[in-house]
Amino acid sequence: TVFAESDMISKQQYGFTKAEIIKGLSEALVRNYMNNLVRNRVLEGEYIFQGGVAANIGIKAAFEEEIDSEVIVPKHHEVMGAIGIAMLAKRDIKRNNQESSFRGFDLTEEEFETNSFECGDCANNCEVIKVVADGRVIAVTGDRCGKWAASLITDSSTAAALSFNKKADQKPELAESDINKSEDIEVELYKVDLEKEKKVMQELKELEELEEEKLDESDKDEKEDNVYV
User: Are residues 62 and 132 in the same domain?
Assistant: First the structure.
């Protein structure tokens, strides 16, 4: 991006218009995507552009010019990734006979508290910020190593729960450094269910291997076609 910015400034000094510079930048970004991600894969079928960048008509036009085909931008392109994850979560819950932990659309009406403590487990001494609702920690941020955020999960039935308050012996430094001085808030942290994480990663790996097999078959078919040309 630093080089792109320098190049755009240079082009501006040479007298290129703003439209020409934006068009060139869009084409460069598309070429970068094609070279680094698509590579020599064979692209077939309809093309759907999702994500926030899909709102950029310049990038859309550059893609259409690059692949010589129409690119479809769905109405809700910016949240398609979230919709996909929701579908996977729904499938996972159904498979495992679980109940949804969705807290409802009235979440914005709930009252939240924020407080923080200094984690002294390493030299970083991070100021970890907690978001508390109904006496329970629902979000953690500020930890550079990510261990506090990663340990916060909602499904306590499948994890080993570690509960403590500010007077707990396990973490005496929390009582001294916690900015919020209220004495009645109990904090619950949960360890990550490693077995569940491994299962998800294995499923993703299998999907990736299946995709690679399809790509290998496409490459093989393309080579055979070239032989008979």
Answer: no
Domain membership flag for residue 66: yes
Model pLDDT for residues 32-74, shown as the tens digit of each residue: 999 998 888 888 888 999 999 999 999 999 999 999 999 999 9
DSSP string, 62-115: HHHHHHTS-EE--TTGGGHHHHHHHHHHHHHHHHTT-------GGGGGS--EEE
Entry field: residues in the chain = 229
Residue 134 lies in a domain: yes
50 within domain boundaries: yes
Owning domain of residue 155: 109-192
CATH code, 26: 3.30.420.40
Here the tokens at position 140 are 């953690």
Render 39-70 in DSSP notation, one character per residue. Answer: TTPPP-S-EE--SGGGG-HHHHHHHHHHHTS-
Total tally of structural domains belonging to the chain: 2
pLDDT tier at 223, thresholds 50, 70, 90: low
Tokens, residue 24: 């060139």
pTM metric for this prediction: 0.45
**220 within domain boundaries:** no
The Cα–Cα gap between 30 and 71 comes to: 13
130 and 185 housed in the same domain = yes
Distance, in Å, from the CA atom of 139 to the CA atom of 218, rounded to the nearest integer, reads: 45
User: What is the per-residue pLDDT for 2?
Assistant: 61
> Which amino acid makes up residue 197?
E
